[in-house]
UniProtKB/TrEMBL annotation:
UniProt keyword list: Amino-acid biosynthesis, Diaminopimelate biosynthesis, Lysine biosynthesis, Methionine biosynthesis, NADP, Oxidoreductase, Threonine biosynthesis
Swiss-Prot/TrEMBL catalytic activity: L-aspartate 4-semialdehyde + phosphate + NADP(+) = 4-phospho-L-aspartate + NADPH + H(+)
Chain ranges of the Semialdehyde dehydrogenase NAD-binding domain: 4-120
Oligomeric form and interacting partners: Homodimer.
Pfam families tied to this protein: Semialdhyde_dh (PF01118), Semialdhyde_dhC (PF02774)
InterPro entries: Asp_semialdehyde_DH (IPR012080), Asp_semialdehyde_DH_beta (IPR005986), NAD(P)-bd_dom_sf (IPR036291), Semialdehyde_DH_NAD-bd (IPR000534), Semialdhyde_DH_dimer_dom (IPR012280)
Residues making up the signal peptide according to the UniProt record: none
Top EC class, one word: oxidoreductase
Family according to the record: Belongs to the aspartate-semialdehyde dehydrogenase family.
Name the record gives this protein: Aspartate-semialdehyde dehydrogenase
EC number: 1.2.1.11
CDD domains: ASADH_C_bac_euk_like, VcASADH2_like_N
Length: 353
């Protein structure tokens, strides 16, 4: 008797994590879970909560009877198909970039703006970009207390933000470099990759990712900014409801498979202390505070991957900037950064349908 849930993009990197999240739930409100993917994956069998389900091909009819359709597909697929799902009566919860900045589509992080779930004139709710999302639980909680004014962010983004092909590429590069001595002279990493049949021209990344950090994520926008950096700015403003929030972001790709990290410099209207920030962060159920500098305890991707909460640490009061906190955040970009937040929105919807 519960709502019917569809997962569009069931066989992709985020879709796979979504199934893992549904498997891990003690109970689910759904009367049916339907798996939808491209025609190429149709017919594939996947087990969800102990039940073998057959993936059906994306078509308008696939949405018949569906109440909530979660989309984990590329922007152009969502742009075409989320409105079709909505026109067939489903609420589309979309994890692509296609609708995030549409004023008629709420951009939801349940800890920050769950009230927006009910405000969906197009029948579409957007899930934020994983980079923005990774810091939202922390910033939302701190903003409620201290009123956020300015944000300077550097990201350390994992390969899996680029999907399965990007994960495969990082593993292939790691394998090609195994046992090789590199990092000695310019060009040595590229030579090893070329010799292994892995020229950078074939990579989803614009440079080798192993033995490297790449100050580039997304596509080129005006004045040298990347799409990813503009998403951090625009989406943070929309989610936090601060249209004039000053934001400057530099997005960087690092050779980590999964978990985005961010170094955050947040300026507030009111006086802040590390002690008060610790209290607020520790009280937020979806945050784990790992901040004991004397014991060298801080968040890292290695200790975050596969976990639902956001891990926050290195909280410091900036020495030369009043009312300002610097801190470090790690969030599994495929879980809270993508699948988990989408699923939490769907759960919120199920309560309100
Ligand atoms: C990335 N945030 O990490 C983007 C995609 N979701 O590439």
């Amino acid at each position: 008797s519960g709502p019917v849930l569809a997962l569009v993009g069931a066989t992709g990197a985020v879709g796979t994590v979504m199934i893992d999240i549904m498997d891990g739930r003690a109970s689910v409100p759904w009367s049916e879970i339907r798996l939808i993917a491209s025609a190429r994956s149709a017919g594939k069998k996947l087990t969800v909560r102990g039940e073998e389900l057959t993936v059906v091909a994306l078509s308008p009819e696939a949405f018949d009877g569906v109440d909530i359709a979660m989309f984990d597909v590329p922007d152009e697929v969502s742009a075409e198909w989320a409105p079709i799902a909505a026109s067939r009566g489903a609420v589309a919860v979309d994890n692509s970039g296609a609708f995030r900045m549409d004023p008629e589509v709420p951009l939801v992080v349940p800890e920050v703006n769950a009230d927006q779930i009910s405000n969906r004139p197009k029948g579409i709710i957007a899930n934020p970009n994983c980079t923005t999302l990774s810091m939202m639980a922390a910033l939302g909680a701190l903003h409620r207390e201290f009123e956020l004014k300015e944000l300077v962010v550097s990201s350390y983004q994992a390969a899996s933000g680029g999907g399965q092909a990007a994960i495969d590429r990082l593993y292939a590069e790691l394998e090609a470099l195994a046992g090789k001595e590199v990092g000695v002279r310019v060009g040595d990493v590229r030579e090893v990759l070329d010799a292994a049949g892995l020229p950078v021209s074939d990579s989803p990344f614009p440079a080798p990712l192993v033995q490297n950090v790449i100050p580039w994520a997304g596509s080129l926008k005006d004045d040298g900014w990347t799409s990813e950096e503009l998403k951090v700015r625009n989406e943070s403003r929309k989610i936090l409801g601060i249209p004039d929030l000053k934001v400057s972001a530099t997005c960087v790709r690092v050779p980590v498979v999964t978990t985005h990290s961010l170094a955050v410099h947040a300026v507030f209207a009111r006086e802040v202390t590390v002690e008060a920030a610790h209290k607020i962060l520790a009280a937020q159920p979806t945050i784990v505070l790992v901040d004991d500098p004397a014991e060298l305890k801080f968040p890292t991707p290695v200790d975050t991957v596969g976990e639902d909460p956001t891990f926050v640490g290195r909280v410091r009061q900036a020495l030369d900037f009043p009312n300002t906190l610097d801190f470090f955040v790690c969030g599994d970009n495929l879980r809270k950064g993508a699948a988990l937040n989408t699923y939490e929105i769907a759960e919120g919807l199920a309560e309100r349908l």
